[in-house]
């Protein structure tokens, strides 16, 4: 299988961390900022959004990083990462969807202004930081309830996708809320295969 996308992308790194957990060796090609443009017609034929990453498995192409993570886990039969039991699986996917929608939208303005240099008013950045901390507080409360991982005692895909997001929050040049459950959870994640290479590597 081949993954198209630069390693500096948080969405590429979540897929690569999933692959590391599954023992998969993905053939990754650099696409995106600084490399080949995902606006090329050939790439747009694979993903009309023109975004990275894209997974290619034979004649099958898949975009949306969380969907790629689910596909890899399902193909490998990794029910520890993506449970087969409907309620347990729904809980994992609920937090994955929350990461892709609610949490990502909370940090977008502040992160893009402070780290990527995109224009934004001080008021918008301040509001963005507050929203980011508020959403991370929701994750902290969930982790305080479970005392272990996002959905309970087991490490799942929810921890992979949210682990990347939490590390971005931890490394961002912002005033962070005190979230002890998140900090303890990140310490637990740091011992997982692939964490040092794809999460705790200093990349934003």
From TrEMBL:
PROSITE patterns: GST_CTER, GST_NTER. Belongs to the GST superfamily. CDD domains: GST_N_2 (cd03047). Keywords: Transferase. Residues 85-204 form the GST C-terminal domain. This is Glutathione S-transferase. Residues 1-80 form the GST N-terminal domain. Pfam families: GST_C_2, GST_N_2. It comes from Roseateles saccharophilus (Pseudomonas saccharophila). InterPro entries: Glutathione-S-Trfase_C-like, Glutathione-S-Trfase_C_sf, Glutathione_S-Trfase, Glutathione_S-Trfase_N, Thioredoxin-like_sf. PANTHER family: DISULFIDE-BOND OXIDOREDUCTASE YFCG (PTHR44051:SF19), GLUTATHIONE S-TRANSFERASE-RELATED (PTHR44051). GO terms for molecular function: transferase activity.
């Amino acid at each position: 299988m081949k993954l198209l996308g630069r390693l500096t992308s948080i969405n590429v790194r979540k897929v690569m961390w999933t692959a590391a957990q599954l023992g998969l060796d993905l053939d990754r090609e650099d696409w995106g900022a600084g490399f080949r443009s995902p606006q090329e017609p050939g790439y747009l034929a694979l993903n009309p959004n023109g975004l990275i990453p894209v997974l290619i498995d034979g004649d099958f192409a898949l975009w949306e990083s969380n969907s790629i993570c689910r596909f890899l886990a399902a193909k490998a039969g990794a029910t520890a990462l993506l449970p087969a039991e409907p309620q347990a699986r729904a809980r994992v996917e609920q937090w994955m969807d929350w990461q892709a929608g609610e949490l990502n939208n909370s940090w977008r303005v502040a992160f893009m202004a402070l780290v990527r240099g995109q224009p934004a008013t001080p008021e918008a950045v301040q509001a963005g930081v507050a929203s980011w901390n508020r959403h991370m507080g929701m994750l902290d409360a969930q982790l305080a309830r479970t005392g272990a991982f996002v959905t309970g005692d087991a490490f799942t895909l929810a921890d992979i996708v949210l682990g990347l997001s939490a590390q971005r929050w931890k490394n961002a040049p912002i005033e962070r809320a005190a979230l002890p459950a998140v900090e303890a959870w990140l310490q637990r994640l740091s011992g997982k295969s692939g964490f040092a290479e794809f999460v705790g590597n200093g990349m934003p």
